[in-house]
Hints:
heterodimer, A: 163 residues, mainly alpha, 8 helices, 68% helix, B: 472 residues, alpha/beta, Dihydrodipicolinate Reductase, domain 2, nine-stranded mixed beta sheet, six-stranded parallel beta sheet, 19% strand, disordered N terminus
Amino acid sequence: MSETRFSSLQMTALVILRALIGWHFLYEGVAKLTRGNWSAAGFLLESKWIFAPVFKWMAQNESILRVVDAMNIWGLILIGLALILGCLTRTAASAGMLLLTLYYLSTPPLVGLYYAIPSEGHYLIVNKNLVEIGALFVIAVTRSGQFAGIDRILGRLTGRSRR
Amino acid sequence: MTEEKKKPEQSGSEKKGLGRRDFLQGLATVPVLGAFALALSRDLSYERKRKAQAFSHARKRTGDVKEVKIALLGAGAQGQVLMDACLKLPGVRFTAVCDIWTEYNQRRAARMLDKFGHRVNAYEDYRELLAEEKGLDGVLIATPDFWHAEQTVACLEAGLNVYCEKEMSNTLEGARKMVEAARRTGKLLQIGHQRRSNPRYLHCYEKLIRETGLLGRITSARGQWNRAVQEDLGWPQRYEIPESVLHKYGFNSMHQFRNWRWYRGLGGGPIVDLGSHQIDIFSWFLGANPAAVIANGGTDYYAKTTHEWHDTVMAVYEYETRDGIVRAAYQTLTTNSSEGYFENFLGDQGTLHISESAGRGGVYREPQAPQWDEWVRQGYLLAPEKAGQATRADAVLDVRETIAPDRHDIPVIFNDPYHMPHLENFFDAIRGEADLTCPAETGYETAVAVLKVNASIEAGRRLVFDPREFHI
Ligand SMILES: NC(=O)c1ccc[n+]([C@@H]2O[C@H](COP(=O)([O-])OP(=O)(O)OC[C@H]3O[C@@H](n4cnc5c(N)ncnc54)[C@H](O)[C@@H]3O)[C@@H](O)[C@H]2O)c1
């Protein structure tokens, strides 16, 4: 099995990509937290396509919604921190992909679906969520945390840096 | 770093143990968090500052105020609203209530007042009230428009100060008599255009229009009250008023009694009912009475037999202000509620959007106008919202297509019942501590401006105002 190795420049590019996505996640979480009264309900109620009943059900169920809101806020913050720091990078990237996939599936930009919440651009099937999912996929399958990130330190300490 | 570049990454890092390079590179992205923290703290303090600038309208006093004794005439929908607002004000005591619907509205109001510890005598005929009740300081009149003139004049002549709901009167003749009576008796007559005392409107007028003139040259204004389709008002069968009583008070049926607004000779239709509030704001903010009006309207949707006044009206006013001509478009719809009610003032440097509806309103700078930073610093406006915070209605679909003007919030928060400051102003005036914000003369000028709309529709052409029409 041939293993492709990355140059430092390539690794640096991945680290930058990781930090940018991390920043985005972190601020999305913090902004919702500091706003105090944020809730996913508005977004969920906008849901269309085949999963819409599930998302709407979440929004309409008071206790479920509270859990969804908290998981969103803290999920975003933790994933963001982990990505910036390169700590448990693979787990963080995968969790981020999962979260974004839920967002995407809730309001996918498919032909004929229109949303009341305006978006700042024009999308067909591919939107920024999907692009960010793709970027996180790259982060998840490369080892930028081992290059620059807490993972490097963790790896050394546990001696599991190389396989 | 340089040797690192030559070597493929990860080679040579087979060794166990934590080296200095591992440590540094492991923490290489920590500064990003530092930058984030810095950016976030700025972000939060900007928001904090923005919020701190908004000052709540704090009412001046609690407790220790001179008591004012009042009576309520007309305890219908609006009478209840006024009553509720008064019950929140210190130093106001109801001693009597008068309403011809004795079994229903009158009883409900008396019970409510009783619950709040106001012992009131109830009357059907206001003349009886005036004969019996001594020691009153003022009355609040919230009967149908066609009763205002007679009742107001009688109350003033009985030595009472009067807060009379808009529309001042359904006829100019009636409104004129009211002004004359106020002058003759020297008593106070406040007309119920409550926006005149609303702290948000006062801020807009005094600071944004008069003092800073930050809208530039105002060239046009726009206002509307769009209301959804409504069924005619009904009544509980067992509380039907006997026909003889209805006739005595000028109504020919229970339906007419409940829906008086729509009948000629009783009300003035939506343009008078709703429009008078907002056309009053046009004249106030523009500092002028209209010079001409052209209007169009009709009963297009409802039954003409029960809706004698127009259900749809569109009017265009011309104002000759010190700065030049201002054209103002106003409409009332009763078949569609889109965008609700608001008044807009459009100048070459900015737009003021204001509504009595709490939470609406904002000031928009034209992209080419001078910056407003100075006014923000002085607290006349809130700092503009950050991009992305625009409300749904204001959002542009594509940022690349339109330069959206900055949106500034009006820094006065007003959460009290809408009519409270206006009533408070009336009571303070009775106590000798304030001047009325909407005295009889002002109400009259607005009545002249508003009633001409129906005249223009009737005439089917543009009607010019003689400046002398506005003054008595
Ligand atoms: N300022 C505002 O925002 C505002 C809002 C709504 C109404 N109003 C004004 O308030 C007034 C009342 O409107 P409303 O919606 O309460 O109408 P309404 O029909 O609900 O109430 C009118 C009340 O007056 C009573 N009444 C009728 N003739 C009377 C008389 N001769 N003597 C004593 N009582 C009599 C009726 O029994 C009824 O209880 C109108 O002038 C209206 O324009 C002002």
